[in-house]
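Researcher: Here's the sequence for the chain we discussed earlier.
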Amino acid sequence: MKNCWLLGVLVLALGQPVLSQDQPPMPPGGRGPMMPDSAQIVQMVDELAGKLTLTVQQKEKVLKIHQAHYAEMKKLRSDESMDREARREKMRGMRDKMSEQIKALLNEDQAKIYDEYLKEQQSHRMMRPGGPPSGPRP
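Model: Thanks. This is the structure I predict for it:
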């Protein structure tokens, strides 16, 4: 009996790090995944530029849009005056605004690919722990 108990404790202790690797890192205070740093923003834009076959000029503009967006998001996340739901709604609006700014730079073919990309991103947000509890947005 004692061996079973020790085995159970060992499995729980060793299994926890493996289970936690699938989840994005949490910032201090436990408010969802950390904001990307400048290198990660460049990496995200590079990935998007590859998917959309952006021109150099488009890529530069998309990078500026992303940088401004994440600077604004960082400010909002540190704003303690808003409750969680109000902050979430504001972030959703900011994300939609960024998407519209990017779409304005794209040609018709790129816009179709971008719409698919956005659907994939929404799907990932819905599946991650702590994703929107109310289901998909209309």
